[in-house]
Design goal:
The protein is mostly beta strands. Helix content is 5%, strand content 41%. The longest helix has 8 residues, at 6-13.
């Protein structure tokens, strides 16, 4: 490897007082103030650059992997702060924390757009003493406090059952740890446990179960690094959005990981996957366009702190699915109606705007089980649809070749879920492994 000459090194160190270089001038400072709601300043608040993402186009790095992430500044007596010389091509997610205040995220911050003003709320002492409050600390694998970790409730146990989703009526929707790794959540009476996902920069997500009135230590672990290379006919494919989800979709177990783009050499890197789980890797259909399709790939993540390299993944020709939405009473399909194609294994979908006669087309569909759904007020899916999903509505089935002329038939009525329409003649209420078919 060539090393720079001494003259070159000295040249780089020479600056003219009061004159910034072009590179420095192009890197804006992030400046702002942290205030209370009454406009009084919050002194000694810490403003972190938590994550970042490109202003234009997809990111090829994880949101916490950009060079500026982790930089911070503390507010002075007037609440002012400044973080100098940031990348002008990025938008930043800030985390603002202060003792005895609620932590706060500030999304999509552009340093070049001018000063930012952040309003922090003081913690309520009465709420902190409540028997329905949950408190805890988030620690890293070495036992150090993790500031900026999020605790996101996904389920609450009350009485004899657990409700997943729609928990905002029973518990705060989110908590963020302060600079000491502490967090608080506040529940209503009757909540026995809160089931939450904990996320922290540079570490693997985890589930935790939290009891009101108790204190908790939540220890995080290092994740698994997933890598691979996407190719077509041996040539790299850049700009494809790659993602991974756990094969287990059960509430309390499911994880969705970062979606990141392949680079110019077709390579991708997804860090911090929770260990010892089975995942589905996928490439988003919209990002591949006419370049083909990648069937879902099952893989095991392996041990904490390890790596999973999937090697070269070859894009295959995608399938075409065309059809028509038909109303059994002969009425026209409403203008601007859309049909949704969702992949069963991958966390991916595509939408198509129906033509005036109800026609639709999807291209680049992988070899996989998919579902087709459309909602039109006053109509339900007819039992004459041979791939009818009797539990959830819509059509469900496998796409293994081009499918043309599919008819999705709707009839007047209101759809009722969970089998209330009766049982299918063949006993298969969700024919996801059979070929996708429409009405007769």
């Amino acid at each position: 490897m060539r090393t720079p000459s001494l003259i070159a090194c000295l040249t780089l160190l020479i600056t003219v007082p009061g004159v910034a270089s072009a590179a420095e001038a192009a890197r804006p400072n992030l400046a702002g103030r942290v205030l209370h709601a009454d406009r009084s300043p919050v002194a000694k608040a810490t403003v972190f650059i938590y994550t970042a993402g490109p202003k234009v186009g997809p990111g090829i790095l994880c949101p916490s992997c950009y060079a500026d992430c982790g930089r911070k500044a503390q507010t002075d007596a007037t609440g002012k702060f400044e973080i100098p010389a940031l990348d002008p091509d990025l938008l930043y997610r800030l985390l603002v924390v202060a003792a005895e205040h609620e932590s706060l995220y500030v999304p999509k911050t552009d340093p070049a757009a001018g000063e930012v003003t952040v309003t922090l709320a003081r913690l309520n002492p009465a709420k902190l003493a409540s028997p329905t409050r949950i408190s805890g600390m988030v620690l890293d694998p070495e036992g150090q406090a993790v500031p900026g970790a999020t605790i996101s409730p996904e389920g609450v146990s009350r009485g004899m059952g657990t409700q997943w989703g729609g928990t905002d009526a029973f518990v705060d929707p989110l908590a963020v740890t302060d600079e000491h790794g502490r967090f608080w959540l506040f529940c209503t009476n009757g909540v026995a446990r809160v089931h939450a996902v904990v996320e922290a920069r540079g570490l693997a997500k985890r589930w935790t179960s939290l009891e009101p009135g108790a204190d908790h230590l939540v220890r995080m672990e290092a994740g698994v690094l997933l890598t691979g290379r996407l190719v077509r006919d041996g040539q790299p494919l850049a700009g494809a959005i790659m993602g991974a989800v756990t094969a287990d979709r059960m509430a309390g177990n499911f994880f969705r990981c970062d979606e990141l783009a392949t680079d110019e050499d077709g390579r991708f890197s997804i860090p911090n996957l929770p260990a010892d789980r089975e995942y589905v890797l996928y490439a988003k259909m919209d990002s591949l366009g006419d370049r083909g399709a990648l069937p879902p790939r099952l893989f095991a993540s392996g041990k904490t702190g390890g790596a999973a390299d999937l090697g070269e993944l070859a894009v295959q020709p995608g399938h075409r699915v065309t059809g028509r939405v038909v109303l059994s009473d002969g009425q026209p399909v409403p203008t601007n109606t859309r049909v949704l194609l969702s992949r069963e294994q991958a966390w991916d979908h595509a939408e198509a705007l129906l033509e005036p006669d109800g026609q639709f087309t999807f291209r680049g569909v992988p070899t996989e089980s998919v579902s087709l759904n459309v909602r039109i007020k006053g109509y339900k899916y007819s039992k004459r649809n041979r791939s009818l999903d009797w539990l959830n509505g819509g059509l469900i089935g496998r796409v293994e070749k081009d499918i043309d002329g599919l008819t999705l038939l709707l009839e007047p009525g209101e759809w009722r879920y969970n089998g209330e329409e009766g049982e299918p003649p063949d006993g298969d209420s969700q024919p996801r492994e059979k070929p996708l078919r429409g009405s007769e």
